Amino acid sequence: MTDQTATPVAAPPAHGGPPSVEVPRRAWQALVVLLAGMFIALLDTTIVNVALPTIETSLDASESTLSWIISGYALAFGLALIPAGRVGDRIGHKWVFFTGIALFTLASAACGLAQSDTQLVVFRVVQGLAGGIFVPAVTAFIQLLFPGRSRGQAFAIMGAVIGVSSALGPIVGGLIIQAFGETSGWRLVFGVNLPIGVATLVAAALLLPAKHPADPAGKAGIDWVGLLLLTAGLVALLVPLIEGQDKGWPTWTYVTLAGGAVLLVVFALWEIAYTRRGASPLVPPHLFSHASFTGGVILALVYFAAFTSIFFTLSILWQTGLGHSALESGVVSIPFAIGSIIASSQSNKLAERLGRTVLVIGAGLLSVGLIWLWLVLRSSNPAGLTHWDLLPPLLIAGLGNGAFIAPNAQFIIATVDRAEAGAASGVVSTVQRVGSAVGIAIIGSVLFGSLVITGPDTVASGFTTAAGNAMAVSAAFSVVALLLVFALPKRTGGHGPAAPKRAAVAQDVAQPTA
């Protein structure tokens, strides 16, 4: 990362672009502040996985609560992204970022102090909401503070922070629980955010510009009715998916599922009517007139449902089923993390050289890795199952994930016109988070729904079988995602007069998302 004591950095000239523009040292200092926020937001997507079994024991939490802890965070995070970005455009991104970090820090403290599983889920949802509030400001400030080639450098650094924070999560969580014990350890997992959050608040107040000259006018309002309908529809779908198995699938679960589907239809109709009134909808309906964009959105939903559920399954198996420690559970994730970091560091270069093929390779490797994991869990003797058995498939899956994650939004956004790129970026980011929430809901239902334990001697075999079933569903999602990749253009630029503009915008607005 750039030396903060160095003189201002001059951005090298982009090929065929304007002359290089000097980037002030203060911009790089601001980037450090912004990425500190991004670090804790992404750390919390993975650090909690290894704490789930100890949370279950400490709070006597239900199986569905474990799914809510992950799904609630992801759903709230995703739903806040678009409104928060528009509020930032209107009033300036500094205080939106500051407010989000403050709320995230307070919610983290509340999670660590929670006295019941219900309290923890509520505070976890607030934490996700806070993350969704401040994360759009990170990419907005990068757009505003870094011109030309330096913007690409800033996004590359952000991608590295995303990869490292996601990779560190399980290890840091495991080390904390190992050092402080199960009862205090899972609470301190949330406490990690407190010193970082406080330091980020102070630095943000001092270093982030209150209003940048390049800020957009931000005249578009927020579609609150659309947001309410979308939130209600998604929650109505998630509640029965998460609670249904635990409750024995009573009649209300099917009624709620149907109600959720109806609400999503009403949301779509409202967005069409809202657009015809000349207002700015939450999800512009005309985006879906592009068949490739529609396929890309489904791809984002399915892919994130596939890969974010892997370590939910493995953490429950490794600790609750096989009796390993939280640290040992964190060690299991290392091959996947290493593969992701290696491949993501080269993914943009590969995308320039191979085009869409890099996404085919990425989704293909993830599919191979997850199918291999399923076969290992299905055929292994639970008593003899070790992390070495999972190392090769997790490394392959991690390489695939790293190759796919960074360029995937770039290719999806390239399917729409330049004027639509900003709206498309917001939709894709939201759908990725919704996919994570839906994936955990479905995988949790399969995992606990197929769990059969008839006595103490069958705990390991019961959890291994159930984990194998859950991994089979994750693998099926990944295969569907692989097929959907072919809906995207072969190149982000494509052909024709509008292609260079679409490619340029896609490069500007796309960013790695974990």
Main traits of this protein?
18 helices; two-stranded antiparallel ribbon; Growth Hormone, Chain: A; disordered C terminus; cell membrane; 2 strands; 514 residues; transport; mainly alpha; transmembrane helix
Name of the level-1 CATH class of the largest domain: Mainly Alpha
SSE class? mainly alpha
Unreliable residue runs = 1-19, 494-514
CATH architecture classification name of the largest domain: Up-down Bundle
Order of helices and strands: EEHHHHHHHHHHHHHHHHHH
Proportion in β-strands: under 5%
In whole angstroms, how far apart are the ends? 20 Å
What does this structure look like?
Helix content is 76%, strand content 1%. It is built from 18 helices and 2 strands. The chain has a two-stranded antiparallel ribbon. Helix 6 packs antiparallel against helix 13. Residues 1-19 and 494-514 have low confidence and may be disordered. Pfam families: MFS_1 (PF07690). It is a multi-pass membrane protein. One of its GO terms (cellular component) is plasma membrane.
